[in-house]
Amino acid sequence: MKKILIVITDTILLSVFKSWVFRARKKDTLFFAKDSHAALQILTTQPIDLLITPLNLSGIDGIELIIAAAATCPELKVAFFLSEDFMWQSEKLSKLAHFYFVEQPSSLKEFCCFEQTLGVAEYQAPVLATISITDFLKLLMCRKKTCLLMVQNEATQQQALIYLENGVLYEAMCGGFKGLVAMEEILTWKTVTFTFMPLPEDAPFTRNIKVSLSELLEKHTQV
């Protein structure tokens, strides 16, 4: 089995799972982190093939974690835990073709069953570098995330900014264009990288794009 890093925030479960891995002599293939910072530290010291993380993490959340990981490990594969808190979103999330979701184990018995399926997860999970801009924006919308996102076109090195508030598209800036025109240009980009920028404190964005993000993405996929 390839090397897999699993983020578990429950300290009791984390201890139980790590003890089982040690007894099963799999400590060289299965690694654990309690949060995003610990995960990023492991990624700098181990050639991890697959990262599995919850979406909901304190501080740096799961989405920000995979983007930070992509900066240094573009060939890393990634999967998200779909915990009970987010099971109601499973139908929407399952439609995101460029992401892979697995149910989060909540007991040692469930973890043992989960461990037996990791080979399938490693095979089916996408490489970070192949994440499409449409699926990534759908994930941000589904999670109702507030963020200032920098998008870079890998073909031209052109950069753009997108601002979302609670998953609602407020503003986009690309070259000399702003608003809807800028957003439509960004959606034509094929291979991109993402960076989360610090949110502005003194001058928050007003909503300059009245069309919903879901409408724009639907229109883009039909072109």
Secondary structure elements and pairings:
Elements: E1 4-7, H1 11-23, E2 30-33, H2 36-43, E3 50-54, H3 62-72, E4 77-82, H4 90-94, E5 101-103, H5 108-116, H6 118-124, H7 133-142, E6 147-153, E7 159-165, E8 168-174, E9 177-178, H8 179-186, E10 192-197, H9 213-222
Parallel strand pairs: 1-2, 1-3, 3-4, 4-5
Antiparallel strand pairs: 6-7, 6-10, 7-8, 8-9
Describe the overall structure.
- The chain has nine helices and ten strands.
- The protein is α/β, with parallel strands linked by helices.
- It has a five-stranded parallel sheet, with helices on both faces. A five-stranded antiparallel sheet has the order 9-8-7-6-10.
- The termini are far apart.
Gap between N and C termini, in Å?
Answer: 41 Å
State Rg.
18 Å
Structural shape: elongated
Biggest beta sheet attributes: 5 strands, parallel
In the sheet with the most strands, the strands line up as 2-1-3-4-5
| Number of H- or I-type helical stretches | 9
In total, the number of strands is 10
Strand content: 15-25%
- The overall pLDDT, averaged over residues, is 89
**Structural class, please?**
alpha/beta
- The proportion of residues forming helix, as a percent range, comes to 25-40%
